[in-house]
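Attaching the record inline, Q. Sequence:
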Amino acid sequence: MAETESLADWMSNLNEKFTKIPLSQLAIPGSHNAMAYSLDMDSSVLEPKKLKALDKMFSTFLRPIVKKWGTAQEKNISEQLDAGMRYFDLRVAGKPESSDLFFYHGLYTTMTVKEGMTELETWLRQHTKEVVILSFSHFKEMSDDQHTELTSYLKELFKTKLCPKPQVPSLKDCWESGYQFILSYDNRNVDDPVLWPRIEYWWADNSDPKEVISYLNNKKQIGRPEGLFVAGLNLTFDGNDMLLYLTKSLKEKTMPAYLLLLDWVKEQHPGSDKESINIIAGDFVGVNSFAQDIIQLNNADSGS
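Structure, as predicted:
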């Protein structure tokens, strides 16, 4: 794939042999905390616990810090799709003072879930051979009724474009059936033919890129799951880190680490063997060669 080639339609441009294997055997770029580009400074702190407890007294001081460390993406959903992202990590929370649902990461987003999903669906309507994997999880402050309302809304929005479980489709399967969405919904109380269970996410929970790589290599040694799964390249900082690095931000800590992380990516291969990878998710997607490097793995000989 040429460096200059747009990644907006990379799935439709794949070598034909890769369109006939399950999506779980492709290398797919993903967005960790995909909606954490529109955090609301006027909202209360939802996490981490240590800072949530202090929010009532010190909100003016704390919220800018939580925003700097919670902002995990810079590009909006359409820009992320243009940049080749096809997996989206979506965390949803109810807000006591609102009937709407929001995304969150530390703080609530300014954007509602309906606004975000409408933008995504509009983009997919213009790119009919692209397929996305939406992973809804880490729900907060939501009642059973709100879960019912959200899943009903998503089913109504995506309609027949939702791929039913449990067989992971190939791109060719999706194209022939008109599927563009695999919808994973991590809630045991919700069961529906088009709502897939939780997608395993390899999360190192570490702020050191060397430790993240070591963790991912250990997971590979044990062996990948059979279906869709995610290797997370994201660095993790807790409340203590945020207070320790008051003047820093998640971006300042993440971007230099990408040199090491992308070296690791280039050594990987998709496929069905024990050490193959599938989805690789990261922060601040679309600002470096992250997506290009992952998509390129599908064209390497080792992916055949």
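The first strand starts at residue 28 and ends at 31. The first helix runs from residue 49 to 70.

More tomorrow.
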